Amino acid sequence: MSQVWKDYQEKNKDRFLNEMLDLLRIPSVSAKSEHKTDMLTCAEAVKKSMLNAGCDKAEVMATDGHPVVYGEKLIDPSKPTVLVYGHYDVQPAEPLELWTNPPFEPTIIDGKVFARGSADDKGQFYMHVKALETLVKTNTMTTNIKFLIEGEEEVGSPNLGKFVAAHKDLLKADVILISDSSMLSMENPSLDTGVRGLSYIEVEVTAANRDLHSGTYGGAVANPITILAKMIASCHDENNHITIPGFYDDVVVAGPEERALINKAPYDEKEYSEELGVKELWGEKGYTTYERTGIRPTIEINGIWGGYQGEGAKTVLPSKATAKISARLVPNQSSHKMTEKLLNYFTSIAPASVIVKAFEHHGGEPYMTPIDSKGYQAASKAVETTFGKAPIPVRGGGSIPICSILERELGIKIIFMGFGLDNDNLHSPNEKYNIENYYKGIETIPYFHKFFADMN
Amino acid sequence: MSQVWKDYQEKNKDRFLNEMLDLLRIPSVSAKSEHKTDMLTCAEAVKKSMLNAGCDKAEVMATDGHPVVYGEKLIDPSKPTVLVYGHYDVQPAEPLELWTNPPFEPTIIDGKVFARGSADDKGQFYMHVKALETLVKTNTMTTNIKFLIEGEEEVGSPNLGKFVAAHKDLLKADVILISDSSMLSMENPSLDTGVRGLSYIEVEVTAANRDLHSGTYGGAVANPITILAKMIASCHDENNHITIPGFYDDVVVAGPEERALINKAPYDEKEYSEELGVKELWGEKGYTTYERTGIRPTIEINGIWGGYQGEGAKTVLPSKATAKISARLVPNQSSHKMTEKLLNYFTSIAPASVIVKAFEHHGGEPYMTPIDSKGYQAASKAVETTFGKAPIPVRGGGSIPICSILERELGIKIIFMGFGLDNDNLHSPNEKYNIENYYKGIETIPYFHKFFADMN
Questions:
Q1: Chain B residues inside the 8 Å CB shell of A428
Q2: How big, in percent rounded to 5, are the helix, strand and coil portions of chain A?
Q3: How far apart are alpha carbons A395 and B80 in whole angstroms?
């Protein structure tokens, strides 16, 4: 079978790439209301691509937010069904001035496609569309394939839970397959065995009812930036342990065996630091880098602003300061409970000289998938087939908030088979996806379907 | 004499107001290079207004930055000379969305002129131009009058020192008179006996060489916002005492008598707090509000930014965070020494996981003027004449960096005769100047010249 796939893919590789580039040209930024029309345009393009690839049915389906694109190619009800999840929305591209090329004009340099969404997740979910095309056009389908491509992953999938609950029959499957993560490297392929959860809040501190002259009032009225800084500083102790009451309460502490497994992944601290341009890493005392990003919860300040940010100097004592703050969660922390804890923490520690407003942006539960499942085994075998090396199971640091909801509503497990790399600049300027990884993904996915069908 | 002044001013009051409004329409923001042409336009308008008012000579004089406007009306070399200092540049108007009316379209509501620069300092220095006109047109000049109106006060007067040193003869005078401050209230007029000094720096913290995904890297790489917040938080202890090494070293500690005098000024904490919309004030333990803003040095964070600041949520671990930080200084602190201390503090406390760049924006020395001088006595008598009440001597919280330089270069004392109010929203959205105060200033200034001439 492999030869017919290879031949078909080789013959169509330029078109496969160009179609992906077309998708990247649509600025489908879900967080910003000004891109509402682009979101619809992108959803329609995804639908069309599914039909072109060989789906019998594809549909843009409304939600209370940005629509979902559903597609399917069903061959036989007795065969297993794979539900492919992905997302066509992307992160905001700001800060724009740091992009070498415009974020929505994909540019190929040294075998890499630079564009917002190239790796996260348009380039990755589109591998599944092209894998389906390969299977359909070579008449080698062994599973039923369904697509659930949403438009709100980057804003926490606020409407997908309701959508899935309302379409359980439509989405019925035996396994969920997601390519929205990375592997260690092309030489050391890996499969994620879980993702961290997320609690994302915003905290606004208001002191005086207006900006004040820092000379006339400085020293007598609270400075909201100083107060917010004190609140942020209070989140970590000198060992970078988080000090928010109850923060670690529900954390499942990893045992020596699990920690040993995590630390077996190839890791070179010098190389890791140099690639990031830092002299020293920074994290919770007593844990290695992969433990810090995999099995430990964290608090990050994602953004902060207040007062004068322009050229030169302005002697203002500002009225307001605001921060976007998020926690990454591990099993068995609950996003809902953590959000409550965070909101409560930031409102309760504020002095009476300021007013604090804190609200939730979104959240998602941590998720783990067992490595002894048929799905994981099929993915592992598929990667081994095309990479020549069995993938290392690792814990992913990112979050896909919908995972726990998908499992709960559909009663099936999720398999993460990501083909990105950690240095793809996800959520950053100059996001890229290596063309080699894109093709490797399209090559690998058909094997997943074959092995999964064989096992069932 | 008073009746002829009164008659002249009454007859011309509408024009006096309209001319001030015309000046406010020019967006002379010295901090922003995009306003370079506006700065020149404004300087020319100031020059023209001096000639129209009766100056024999007025000139726009180049500096290495924005030009100075010099004007003079000399009547007799044997008479005393008053040098009026003011500035035609204004603070940036941002955040624009908080202005009820556009900052450079002066709007009159309830007897107040709302516009950037209305009180600081166009409306205030222009009182002197109209006072000169009053004296010239009523043939009642008793002093020689010189104007030194600069265009860089809001950026720390970086070029005025050199200008003054190069034009000592031109600027020769017996006293310097400045209206660039406020009084307690119309019912409780006051005169400032000093201004605080200033050290203004910017601190930029860089962690990784690019924005990162907060899931993939969160927990393993320093967050520059967290680090900057810790650095800012470390500046004050729990009593809001500043903890930067050596910060208070050169402070002249006010004795019980001076403190008693400061606290004699009418003050209602409830009213003060309510006007600012705060439940509680915030400041250094052991000092009253007027002490905190008058005789104590402070540190304020004037601005902060880093990471994602847009709509919604972005799970980014930012590369950079930046803050604008300034200290207000009191006698005998040195701005130069303090700037060194601040730069050193912020670069030395940073962990090795980040790179800190810190640089100076500008600074200025604190300044005190004795209340037994002829100039202060003339000002006090002038205010008493028109307000019916002797002004209270108070310490101003703001800074006029050029004061110490003017005194050093010209060998004469500065008198602060401000007619603004603390709630004029200086440096804030909706800056305003009460028309009543404007007219009261124009009414009072001729008396200053008369009394100062009488004493000499």
A1: 210-213, 316
A2: 35, 25, 40
A3: 82
| Per-residue pLDDT tens over the stretch A235-285 | 999 999 999 999 999 999 988 988 998 898 889 999 999 999 999 999 999
Q: How far apart are CA A16 and CA A22, in angstroms?
A: 10
Three-state SS letters, A139-200: CCCCCEEEEEEECCHHHCCCCHHHHHHHCHHHHCCCEEEECCCEECCCCCCEEECEECEEEE
Establish if B94 touches chain A: CB-CB under 8 angstroms. Answer: yes
Q: Reading across the β-sheet that carries B107-109, which strands appear in turn?
A: B107-109, B112-114, B432-434
Q: Report the residue of chain A nearest B280, measured CA to CA.
A: A353
Query: Has this prediction a pTM greater than 0.90?
Result: no
Give this complex's ipTM. 0.86
Phi/psi class of residue B427: alpha, beta or left (left: φ > 0; alpha: ψ in -120 to 50)? left
Using CB atoms, which residue from A226, A276, A399 is nearest to B221? A276
Residue in chain B nearest A184 by alpha carbon = B216
Q: CA torsion angle for B178, B182, B186, B189 (degrees, to 10)?
A: -70
Residues contacting B8, CB < 8 A, separation 6+: B134, B137, B138
Flag whether residue A23 sits within 8 Å of chain B, measured between CB atoms.
Answer: no
From B337, B393, B382, select the one nearest B194 (Cα to Cα): B393
Nearest residue, CB atoms, A219 vs list B94, B284, B323? B284
Q: List CB contacts (< 8 A) between A420 and chain B.
A: none
Write down the residue that tokens 């993560």 correspond to: A181
Measure the CA–CA gap between B77 and A119, rounded to whole angstroms.
79
The Cα A90–Cα A30 span in angstroms is 7
Q: Give the one of A31, A351, A428 whose C-beta lies nearest to B312's C-beta.
A: A31
Radius of gyration of chain A (CA): 23
CA distances A105 to A23, A24, A305, Å, are: 10, 7, 29
Do residue A31 and residue B427 have CB atoms under 8 angstroms apart? Answer: no
A139 vs chain B: nearest CA distance in angstroms? 38
Element (DSSP H or E) covering residue B119? none
Residues of B in contact with A182 (CB under 8 A): 216
Q: Tokens 């903890």, residue? A: B243
- Domains in chain B, please, with CATH? 2-195+366-455 (3.40.630.10), 197-251+297-364 (3.30.70.360)
- Could you report the per-residue pLDDT of A24-52, keeping only the tens digit for each? 999 999 999 999 999 999 999 999 999 99
Closest B-chain CA to A326? B315
B420-421 and B182-183 beta bridge pairing = parallel
